[in-house]
Amino acid sequence: MLTRHLLKQASTCRHFLLNSKTSSPFLTKSILFTSSSSSPESQSPTNTFVDDKVKDQYPTGTSISIDRSALYNLPEHSHEPTSDSELVKHLKGIIKFRGGPISVAEYMEEVLTNPKFGFYISRDVFGAEGDFITSPEVSQMFGEMVGVWAMCLWEQMGRPKQVNLVELGPGRGTLMADLLRSASKFKSFTESLHVHMVECSPTLQKLQHHNLKCFVEDDNSDGVEKRTVSMLAGIPVSWHALLEQVPSGMPSIIIAHEFYDALPVHQFQRASRGWCEKMVDVSEDSMFRFVLSPQPTPATLYLMRRCKWAAPKEIEKLGQIEVCPKAMDLTRTIADRIRCDGGGALIIDYGLNGVVSDSLQAIRKHKFINILDNPGSADLSAYVDFASIRHSAEEVSDISVHGPMTQSQFLGALGINFRVEALLQNCTDEQADSLRTGYWRLVGEGEAPFWEGPDELVPIGMGTRYLAMAIVNKKQGVPVPFQ
Known about the structure:
Blueprint: H1 2-19, H2 25-36, H3 52-57, H4 86-98, E1 102-103, H5 104-113, H6 135-138, H7 140-156, E2 163-168, H8 174-183, H9 187-190, E3 193-198, H10 202-211, E4 214-216, E5 228-230, E6 235-240, E7 252-257, E8 266-271, E9 274-282, E10 288-292, H11 300-309, H12 312-316, E11 320-323, H13 325-341, E12 343-352, E13 361-364, E14 367-369, E15 379-381, E16 384-385, H14 386-394, E17 399-406, H15 407-414, H16 416-424, H17 429-443, E18 445-447, E19 460-462, E20 466-473
Parallel strand pairs: 2-3, 2-7, 3-6, 7-12, 12-16
Antiparallel strand pairs: 1-9, 4-5, 5-6, 8-9, 8-11, 9-10, 12-20, 13-14, 13-15, 17-20, 18-19
InterPro entries: NDUFAF7, NDUFAF7_sf, SAM-dependent_MTases_sf
Subcellular location: Mitochondrion
Enzyme class: transferase
């Protein structure tokens, strides 16, 4: 019965549309509604727009016009594959899911350490063939001097029988390899050590395992976990994704070389309504762009904390500020461990002893590029705020902070000048050139004056750009060479 009634309705509609001579807004609206609706209500007899009364109002031959101007035209869908990388798709997916932009810090963290696509996760980014060169890759002398510092601290600690030697973000493991190789002659020191490498990249873990010449001990004891040992000094080595996973209960000597600069930073920009966080969004042409947050964000609490530590005049002259909550929290974790278990931490990085403004940069194949250009293909890093590290550590009781001093001052006080002279006594001409170049890069400033090679390869000194700071337990006194 219902089917026959609906067929009769449709026949009546067709008959009326073919024989009408006038148009009506009522008809237009009704046609659009009826053709687009499939609800039971739209199909009921009470919703029929053609009846005998309407037919009487519109004589035969009336034409009907349908206004579609208000309809939304969907863009043509392309089935062609996009050129976006998997990380770019992932970032755009996060922004779409959130319904708005993400912080610069979250963007930076995804780009560097995303478990599948992160810059550090699946490749070797260090050295001449990588994207940048770090101090340990420049010369063996850097790791040797850090080893001198660690042994001096161990002496000040009273020569404990068990010590955790921890490195955060060890890269290829070059620094630790040079440290252990040079310290292997001092058996009482090396026999007390258990090395802990805090590294989240499986690729770099394998490189570190290789460069430390590690092997797994043969142990037939039931229930005893086999140890991984470095052949460089016969020292057990363990790997962890986080510092919190390193066993506590014994003194720790912690080394953080070029680790803090890779921690994600939040950027704030001064606007008419106050400080606004800088965010990363996707524009209409599907490109990444920077926007400002319309309201305060959770990171604003860290901004307020950082501003409280600074002089008002220092803040007034700035149009942008970078804050690194993870650096503040990590420093507090380090300080708590040192307070409870004893020991100390050495932080060496490029940065400032004050508020950092706009320092975030991207480096690909040793060249600076746009931060938002093809994320995941370049390293992202920012200046380290050493003043913020100091204040974060000093919030913990029984902790003292020393420095920062320049890397040139630090290495010079530990004896790098004597070390390079000793090495030059017994080397080839080629090795001598390499030693001089490496020495200049570690302690020099600007371009090397002795360079006679191509201009594009001139060694640039990092001696004043990099700073060194120590955090120690107060009971141990002032560490070398900060006296």
